[in-house]
Specification:
Strand order of the largest sheet: 3-4-5-6
Helix content: under 10%
Structural class: mainly beta
Distance between the termini: 33 Å
Number of helices: 0
Shape: globular
Number of strands: 10
Radius of gyration: 13 Å
Order of helices and strands: EEEEEEEEEE
Largest sheet: 4 strands, antiparallel
Length: 111
């Protein structure tokens, strides 16, 4: 499966650098779409599902590609740089942000 410049389930993704995460033997790919949203493609029981992580409360659009990793406790985490020009809170320009998976949901926090 290629995600570069193709339409996948109606989402056009840019030719940006995707990053992979493997957590509990399930693969995930995170990337920044052409709309600067952060997307996750996750393998759930053999089916690749799409998740727009920018829908998470407090999440800014990204102005750089996200990077994913799994911490020492096994939690999936994604870090990215926010874009002040795509969100009304101007204080968030070029600040680092984190999305992390906890309690069955993605959460956001400023770093």
């Amino acid at each position: 499966m290629s995600i570069f410049g193709e339409s996948i389930d109606g989402v056009i993704v840019s030719a940006r650098q995707p990053d992979g995460i493997c957590r509990r033997q399930r693969g995930r790919v995170v990337y920044r779409g052409e709309d600067s949203h952060i997307f996750e493609r996750g393998d759930w029981s053999g089916q690749w599902l799409l998740n727009d992580l920018s829908a998470t409360r407090g999440t800014l659009k990204a102005n750089a590609d996200p990077r994913g990793f799994v911490d020492a406790n096994g939690a999936a985490r994604i870090v990215y740089r926010g874009d002040e020009y795509m969100h009304p809170r101007a204080s968030d320009d070029n600040m680092l942000h984190e999305l992390f998976y906890s309690g069955g949901q993605w959460l956001h926090r400023d770093l």
